[in-house]
Amino acid sequence: MPEIEFRSDVTVELVRSSASDSDVLFAARVSTQGEQTLEAAQDGHDATSRDRGLINYLMRDRHGSPFEHNSMTFYVQAPIFVFREFMRHRMASYNEESGRYRELRPVFYVPSDDRNLVQVGKPGAYDFLPGTPEQTALVRDETVRASTQAFEAYQRMLDAGVAREVARIVLPLNIYSSMYVTVNARSLMNFLSLRTKREGSQFPSFPQREIEMCAEKMEDVWQTLMPLTHEAFQSKGRVAP
């Protein structure tokens, strides 16, 4: 049986992109300038105060469609329960690895020691606080025990000739999967507004920490690609246009 691995992190990598602030300006200015090529719009283009002002105006007044004319594809490795939260948003195109067609790797998520464990308050108005050393040890020990037992059962069924799509039913939600996520900036802003907790947000969000870890990495990439758009998103209360 392959060696079982436990991780406490997620992987988010930009695979390819066609995304810049110029894409937003190009799409928005067709309203007043008519047809132009993207190459002409970008030719010798450095951001000006007029460009920043237009993007801020679009964000403030929620003229959202110019923020859709771009694309980013991310490769994500995370536990399956995180993917279920991703797909609730219906804001991107997803392609996930298949447990029907390949044998799943024995890589499982276990919370890091600094992951908050105790929920205080009621849904919609709660905080998570650190656990005691005893709670932290309990979570780690039980996660390792259950994951190990589940994977051993999965392997026994495979060794007996049971189909992968049947054997996988015993595996827990903390097993890692991988997927490609393709999204535009408008949809990404909607995702970030709900899956990150930030000071200055107009609407409060209470994301589960593991999907917030993915969202933070995606935001770091996007901020580099589209700094003016990210700046406007942040300054306008992190509300998607």
Features:
alpha+beta, 241 residues, Thymidylate_synthase_ThyX, thymidylate synthase (FAD) activity, Gyrase A, domain 2, 10 helices, flavin adenine dinucleotide binding, two-stranded parallel sheet, single chain, globular, 4-stranded antiparallel sheet
Layout of secondary structure:
Layout: E1 5-7, E2 11-18, H1 21-28, H2 30-33, H3 38-42, H4 49-60, E3 71-79, H5 80-88, E4 93-96, E5 107-109, E6 118-122, E7 125-129, H6 133-159, H7 164-167, E8 176-183, H8 185-195, H9 209-225, H10 227-235
Parallel strand pairs: 1-5
Antiparallel strand pairs: 2-3, 3-8, 4-8, 6-7
Task: Tell me about this structure.
- With 241 residues, this protein is of the alpha+beta class.
- The chain has a domain at 5-109 and 176-235: Gyrase A, domain 2 (2-Layer Sandwich), CATH 3.30.1360.
- Helix content is 44%, strand content 19%.
- It is built from ten helices and eight strands.
- The protein has helices spanning 21-28, 30-33, 38-42, 49-60, 80-88, 133-159, 164-167, 185-195, 209-225, 227-235, and strands at residues 5-7, 11-18, 71-79, 93-96, 107-109, 118-122, 125-129, 176-183.
- A four-stranded antiparallel beta sheet has the order 2-3-8-4. Strands 1-5 form a two-stranded parallel ribbon. It has a two-stranded antiparallel ribbon with strand order 6-7.
- Helix 9 packs across helix 10 (227-235).
- The mean pLDDT is 92.
- It catalyses: dUMP + (6R)-5,10-methylene-5,6,7,8-tetrahydrofolate + NADPH + H(+) = dTMP + (6S)-5,6,7,8-tetrahydrofolate + NADP(+).
